[in-house]
Amino acid sequence: MDYEAVIGLETHVQLKTLSKMWCGCANQYGAEPNTQVCPVCLGMPGVLPVPNEQALRLTALTGYLLHCELPRHVQFDRKNYFYPDVAKNYQLTQLAYPSTVNGHVDFEMQGESKRVRITRAHLEEDVGKSFHFDRQSGVDFNRGGVPLLEIVSEPDITSADMAHAYLNALKDILVYGKISDCDMEKGMVRCDVNVSVRPKGSQTLGAKVEIKNMNSFSGVRRALQYEIPRQLEAISRGESIVQETRRWDDVANMTESMRTKEDAHDYRYFPCPDLVPFEPSDNWFETVREGLVELPMDRKKRFMEQYQLPENDAEVFISDVPLGDYFEKVASHGGNPKALANWVINNLRAQLVEPEVSLDSLRFEPAALVELVELVDTGKISSKIAQSVFTDMFTSGKAPAAIVAEKGLVQVSDTGAIEQFCDQAIEANPGPAEDYRQGKDAALNFLKGQVMKLSRGKANPALVGKVLDQKLRP
């Protein structure tokens, strides 16, 4: 019997706010342990939480970006559990009345369009972080109370590669919308994986195995590449898959059991008595909608249609939003979009690796690249000379035409002058000249190189090849 994997993901994303969810403590990574805490986020007796409106707005904006429905009644609940990283022994979250429901993420995988449905994206608070040393453990509560968005997918994912592609697409959307920086090294994105297997064609889900607290997308893929075959092998031996929680051992490259779960919902929830339901107005939703941005797939499609760019170039501009924005500034001045994209991707981007160089600090105007491409397209300078001109304009900020005139770099397209250079090259290199006469086409490239040296790179390469061929094959 053939089996298939059924995968759902719960992605936890820290929101890009200045302060925490219920208090004024800074939402900032890297501070000394337990220095960004107060009685509210530590759950001291008598304190009252105050909702962070920016977190509510970013959650609603996420709903719009993920094509979700946004209910008009939102309620926070207490999720009770006892663990050292939660000082107050409960987490404020949303259960029955979440901020967003019923959305989807569209993305591409191996040239095909895919869609994963979103069950809900609900707002909650992050917990502290435990540290374990040789003889003791400690908890840093700086992270406790940071606004956290949990995005729950439907079990629409069927493979480890599809899970990886979905997570990257989701991350791109959240970064585009300025919902989160999604810096995984700083713990801004974590993921719980729910996976089961079932006979192909069956509508009944198998026993769910949860893999907790994955902190990298590649880790999610590797965990699934291990866990799916593990379950299939167990079934082939006649064993039953038990519903349980497992952890991923990145060193051993395997999952291992943590605990079994008889019920998927083993927490005690009840409405938070300290927080009234949130019922936003139409005007509030309209102000949130003002933050909508063009989604990555829409941007890619537009770049390919509007500028006639190949898919690879469009991919670069959707993965690097500032670079894509700069390309559009350049292209707004006219010119050949494909040639402009080549200069932005291959030349300009290479200069931006230096820490002191940014798009905002460039000395030349965007229109200068259009001028440089026109100098090449009209034959006034060669492509090789254009590389030198670009380096000069990047350093000095001068216009390309001014650099060409100042250094006398205009391309030589005069047939008489090029013939003289060709004659000199043939006379100085009789061996390669004879090789070309004997049908060895590669010898022509050597001779062209010699002509370019004689002309100090100014000769028109296309014309050089034509003249050499005429002289050597009369």
Quick rundown:
With 474 residues, the chain is an alpha+beta fold. The chain has helices at 53-65, 160-176, 217-236, 282-289, 296-306, 311-319, 321-331, 337-351, 366-377, 383-396, 400-407, 415-428, 430-437, 442-454, 461-472, and strands at 3-14, 77-80, 90-93, 100-109, 112-125, 129-132, 137-140, 147-153, 189-199, 209-214, 244-249, 254-260, 268-271.
Count of strand segments: 13
What percent of residues adopt helix (DSSP H or I)?
A: 25-40%
Strand order of the largest sheet: 4-5-8-1-9-10-11-12
Q: Structural class of the secondary elements?
A: alpha+beta
Rough shape? elongated
Instruction: Report the oligomer.
Output: single chain
Summarize the helix and strand pattern as letters: EHEEEEEEEHEEHEEEHHHHHHHHHHHH
Number of individual domains = 3
- The separation of the N and C termini measures 73 Å
Strand content: 15-25%
Weakly predicted, low-confidence segments: none
Overall mean pLDDT score?
91
Q: Rg from C-alpha positions?
A: 31 Å
Features:
three-stranded antiparallel beta sheet; eight-stranded mixed beta sheet; single chain; 474 residues; alpha+beta; 20% strand; Arc Repressor Mutant, subunit A
Describe the model.
The strands form three sheets. Strands 4-5-8-1-9-10-11-12 form an eight-stranded mixed sheet. The chain has a three-stranded antiparallel sheet with strand order 3-2-13, with no helix packed on it. Strands 6-7 form a two-stranded antiparallel sheet. It has 474 residues and is α+β, with helices and mostly antiparallel strands. A hairpin with a 4-residue loop joins strand 6 and strand 7 (137-140). The protein contains 15 helices and 13 strands. The chain folds into three domains: 3-288, no CATH class; 318-400, no CATH class; 415-472, Arc Repressor Mutant, subunit A (Orthogonal Bundle), CATH 1.10.10.410. The chain has helices at residues 53-65, 160-176, 217-236, 282-289, 296-306, 311-319, 321-331, 337-351, 366-377, 383-396, 400-407, 415-428, 430-437, 442-454, 461-472; strands at residues 3-14, 77-80, 90-93, 100-109, 112-125, 129-132, 137-140, 147-153, 189-199, 209-214, 244-249, 254-260, 268-271.
